[in-house]
Amino acid sequence: METQTLSKVDLAAVFQSQQRKALQLKKSTAQERIARLLTFKEAVIANMDNVYEALYKDYKKPKEEASETDSVIVEIDFVVGFLEKWMKPQVVPTPEGLGGAASVSKIIVEPKGVCLFLTPWNYPILLTLRPLVACLAAGNTVIIKPSELTPHSSKLIKEIIESVFPKEEVFVMEGGADVASELLELPFNHIFYTGGTRVGKIVMKAAANHMASVTMELGGKCPSIIDDSADFADAAGKIVWTKFYNCGQTCITTDYILVSENCKDEFIAHLKGTIEHLYGVGGPGIESLNYGRLVNNNHYQRVKKLLDDALEHGATLVIGGKTNDGENYISPTLLDNVDPDLAIMKEEIFGPLLPVLSYKTLDDAIDFVNQRERPLGLYVYSKDKGAADKVINSTTAGGSVINHTSVHYMSPHLPFGGVGTSGIGRGNGYFGFMDFSNQRPVLEMP
Question: pLDDT class for 9, splitting at 50, 70, 90?
Answer without folding.
Answer: low
